[in-house]
Amino acid sequence: MEAGVSPLLYIHIHQGGNIVNLDFKKIEVLADKEITKDNFARIYIEPLERGYGLTLGTALRRVMLSSMPGTSVVGFRMQGVTHQLMTMPGTATDAVELVSNLKKLKFELAEDKLEKVIFKASKAGIYKASHLKLPKGVELKTPDIDLVNVLGEKEVEIEIYIKKGRGFVQASEHTATLNVDNLIGVDGLFSPIKRVATSTEDIRTGDIVTHERLVLDVETFGNINPKEAVMLSAKIIKTHFDFFEDMKDRLTEYEIYKEKEKEVESINNMTIEELKLSVRSTNALTGAKIRTVGELRKMTETELADLRNMGKTSVDEVKKVLTSLGVVLGDF
């Protein structure tokens, strides 16, 4: 695939008071129709400045693998089984093996809530995920995963819990946060992305390499379209870079101290009337010729209580108002 002539993408920056045009080529994002399927897409991003392919490819791959929303099994429960190291009555499958199988399951949920699917079988045999009884709004994307080897001695019933999420969440967190009694937690592998491969190709003008092409191969588990995954990952990255438009100078410790000092000075200059205390408390303070918060902060609680008409209720009121301002009696 050879790149045609692309229009220029004009990016203007201010440098030393002058406007500099970087003259980047306008970038196209193209899907290869011949090999793109429901769960797989090959995406070309071109023409890129040399070295930009690796930069963009690494960022897109990392976001797709770690930050895409998806659905995962988060735990299960079965009568007589209290932890992952136990055997499972009526089966030749132990809990460790079941957890390994559950991590391979991928679902699509219509609603963002904890859902329960049921496995129930009494005849001997190796049962696949397709045997699960699914509630309305739950779709199984991996029906061919082996799940449980039932011996046929008794009926086997397992409750499996699934929910939406993002990234990786440890089993212990599910056990602690989900309101399900006797739940055996399963590590949440929420990513709907099965594989992301990146590579770059040179784009030449004659014998000279002028630009490069980024090639993304994206394979999903079926609960997100691979082209949508690429677009969503790009949007996530763009959202993070948008924050740079509001870049501010980082304050030094000295500057932070000076800002705090100005704030405290403003509080100290507040009049007693501005505190909006009760009439009794206000009269008691102004009667003692205490006119500002700064003068009030110089007093201890005992000194305040000794003022005429300043009872316990008034003292508590003053302390509460000062606390709301971030200051206390006797700290000035």
From TrEMBL:
Region annotation Alpha C-terminal domain (alpha-CTD): where it falls in the sequence: 264-332
DNA-directed RNA polymerase RpoA/D/Rpb3-type domain sequence ranges: 40-247
Listed GO CC annotations: cytoplasm; DNA-directed RNA polymerase complex
Recorded superkingdom: Bacteria
Catalytic activity: RNA(n) + a ribonucleoside 5'-triphosphate = RNA(n+1) + diphosphate
Alpha N-terminal domain (alpha-NTD): annotated segments: 1-248
UniProt keyword terms in alphabetical order: DNA-directed RNA polymerase, Nucleotidyltransferase, Plasmid, Transcription, Transferase
A molecular function GO annotation: protein dimerization activity
InterPro entries: DNA-dir_RNA_pol_insert, DNA-dir_RNA_pol_RpoA/D/Rpb3, DNA-dir_RpoA, RBP11-like, RNAP_asu_C, RNApol_insert_sf
One GO process term, biological-process aspect: DNA-templated transcription
EC number(s) reported in the record: 2.7.7.6
Keyword match Metal-binding: no
Free-text comment on this protein's domains from its UniProt entry: The N-terminal domain is essential for RNAP assembly and basal transcription, whereas the C-terminal domain is involved in interaction with transcriptional regulators and with upstream promoter elements.
HAMAP family: RNApol_bact_RpoA
Family, similarity comment: Belongs to the RNA polymerase alpha chain family.
Record's subunit section: Homodimer. The RNAP catalytic core consists of 2 alpha, 1 beta, 1 beta' and 1 omega subunit. When a sigma factor is associated with the core the holoenzyme is formed, which can initiate transcription.
Main function: DNA-dependent RNA polymerase catalyzes the transcription of DNA into RNA using the four ribonucleoside triphosphates as substrates.
Record's protein name: DNA-directed RNA polymerase subunit alpha
